[in-house]
């Protein structure tokens, strides 16, 4: 860890690392390789970039830090942060920078310890979940077809391959059309023959 007598810059660097390592959006991006094979190295570099950004710019406002973090996430991880966590992360980093600048290193170290405990308690993971219709299709159908989810006019709709096959069989004697609207408002899209 840190030496007994650390400079405010070193403590701030530790604080930035602690904040970013407990930011679920960044950790999900790293764990799932959104930044490519060097995702972890990009996350480590991001700590240095944020710390340097504060030292290169005087009197940063929270919205400037939000914009900077958002730009880094977008450029390095192809991730748009829209979960509401960006203002919280920016605020934590801004507060810790001000505390380091004022010499309140003990307070910052305590916050770093709290963040380390939070990190040790677990990281967020993204795991794909199969719907019950996919499980049934996987066990009954060997054609590697999956259900398709659509979003039309703000309402979610789901069309399974079994329903498409059934509709194709029923209308196989009818002339082939690209799209056909059923009576319940669903639109069935078929391959051209």
UniProtKB/TrEMBL annotation:
Species in which this protein is naturally found: Pangasianodon hypophthalmus
List the PANTHER family.
Answer: PRE-RRNA-PROCESSING PROTEIN TSR2 HOMOLOG
Annotated function: May be involved in 20S pre-rRNA processing.
Keywords for this protein: rRNA processing
State the name under which the record lists this protein.
Answer: Pre-rRNA-processing protein TSR2 homolog
Name the InterPro entries for this protein. Answer: Pre-rRNA_process_TSR2
Composition bias, Low complexity: 153-174
> Alphabetically, which GO biological process terms does the record hold?
rRNA processing
Q: Where is this region: Disordered?
A: 123-193
Give the UniProt family note: Belongs to the TSR2 family.
